[in-house]
Design a protein that fits this description.
single chain; 437 residues; alpha/beta; TIM Barrel; Maltooligosyl trehalose synthase, domain 2; 3 domains; six-stranded parallel sheet; three-stranded antiparallel sheet; 14 helices; 15% strand; globular
């Protein structure tokens, strides 16, 4: 059996699109959340009103094929096609023409970081689960094949596998569990169910195990979205071909990049996107800490405006009342220092909680990577580091990071200061073990 959608056809590499004369730099955008109940046709009907507001461009949520019924579209399953539930490519082109007639351009959201963890709709993922690391599509996904005995953990079961075994059934060359469908490895369909499960390149497990056992990169703690390796040139071409073609043909004018901080190397990705798009207007969804600036190397026009929104919000909050409100809050609730009584202590406690719960699997993966690097390091001083010590060091350094994420182009000392490292070393009872920091 094949997935329930046709195979995607990667677009061949094309010349970088040149900006058409009718695509000025956006001065103001109006975001439209597209979904099956609000497709391209509904957006086109709203264009006259939106144009009257004085905006220059419509900002569209993701337009590529997503999980059927998705209300947001960030769970992409096929980068080669414009989403049929929204009206397909013809619907998008019609919206573009209507927008042009009213003096508006289009900016579209792209999602390079992840795809939907929905094998029956996601053909590349289906093939990886069927063929394992030998699949041509294995390079697409950020999977740690050295963990979980070389099998992809799938946290989809409603309980421990022994309790839900009766809900798992074989249907030809497909394993089904309620609405889920997974491919069976060749030659395994006739095995007894326990042996069949052990013979696959994946392992269906109780959903609660995702927090600590997951071995693929995901979007924050959302296991339904699997990380994509767009740092691979072949993957970049396959996942961006359609969007670049729409830019080249003048259907859309600019891009909004969703969650670039999830990528292995945002610097290199944005440079490649800048070159491939011919330098078209692009902004990024970026969370900036107070006082933090976008990396100078990023080839973008700026952020989507979270930082600006923080300043705009300040217009509606009178700073003169801040102290009184804070005093009243503390008097009424009586929070402990790390429960709202002190901001720095509260942030630190929350960071520990996230690393120990929501992102425990990610911390474990970093630990595995650090252990492999130390074990094979030419510098013998880095060897003989216990995984628990490396995990402790990573945890203590991470909770002391003052920015959302560091970048290869930024000096590590500006992200993990010597003061933070010294504090992290104090956690170790034995000074010699503190060398893991």
């Amino acid at each position: 059996m094949t997935p329930e959608r046709p195979d995607p056809v990667p677009s061949p590499a094309s010349p970088a699109p040149a900006a058409p004369p009718w695509a000025p730099v956006p001065s103001a955008t109006y975001r439209l959340q597209l979904q099956p109940d609000f497709p391209f046709g509904a957006a086109a009907a709203a264009v006259p009103y939106l144009a009257s507001l004085g905006v220059s461009h419509l900002h569209l949520s993701p337009v590529l094929e997503a999980v059927p019924g998705s209300p947001h579209g960030y769970d992409v399953v096929d980068h080669a096609r414009v989403r049929a539930e929204l009206g397909g490519e013809e619907g998008l082109r019609a919206l573009s023409r209507t927008a042009r007639e009213h003096g508006l351009g289009l900016v579209v959201d792209i999602v390079p970081n992840h795809m939907a963890m929905s094998p029956r709709h996601n053909h590349p993922l289906w093939e990886v689960l069927r063929e394992g690391p030998g699949s041509p599509y294995a390079r697409w996904f950020d999977i740690d094949w050295q963990a979980q005995d070389g099998r992809v953990l799938l946290p989809v079961l409603g309980g421990p596998v022994g309790e839900v075994l009766g809900d798992l059934r074989v249907d030809g060359d497909v394993l089904r569990y309620h609405e889920h469908a997974f491919p069976l490895r060749d030659g395994t369909a006739d095995l007894p169910l326990p042996r069949l499960l052990d013979a696959q390149w994946y392992r269906p497990v109780w959903w609660r195990l995702a927090r600590t056992e997951l071995n693929y990169r995901r979007f924050f703690s959302i296991s339904e979205l699997i990380g994509v390796r767009v740092e691979d040139p072949e993957v970049f071409e396959a996942t961006h071909g359609t969007v670049l073609r729409l830019l080249r043909e003048g259907v859309v004018d600019g891009l909004r990049v969703d969650h670039p901080d999830g990528l292995a190397d945002p610097d290199a990705y944005l440079e490649r996107l800048h070159e491939a798009s011919g330098g078209r207007w692009t902004v990024v969804e970026k969370i900036l800490a107070d006082g933090e600036r976008l990396p100078a190397a990023w080839q973008v026009a700026g952020t989507t405006g979270y930082d600006a929104l923080r300043h705009v919000d300040g217009l509606f909050a009178d700073p003169a009342g801040y102290g009184q409100l804070l005093d009243e809050y503390r008097r009424f609730s009586g929070p402990g220092p790390d429960r709202g009584g002190d901001w720095a202590a509260t942030v630190r406690r929350a960071a520990y909680e996230v690393l120990g719960h929501e992102l425990a699997a990610e911390l474990d993966r970093l630990t595995r990577v650090a252990h492999r690097l130390c074990a094979t390091a030419p510098d013998l001083a880095l060897r003989d580091r216990a995984p628990w010590a490396l995990r402790t060091a990573l945890r203590e350094l991470l909770v002391r990071m003052e920015v959302y994420r560091p970048y290869a182009s930024v000096d590590a000392a500006t992200v993990v200061t010597e003061e933070a490292a010294a504090e992290a070393r104090l956690v170790f009872a034995v000074p010699e073990e503190a060398g893991a920091v």
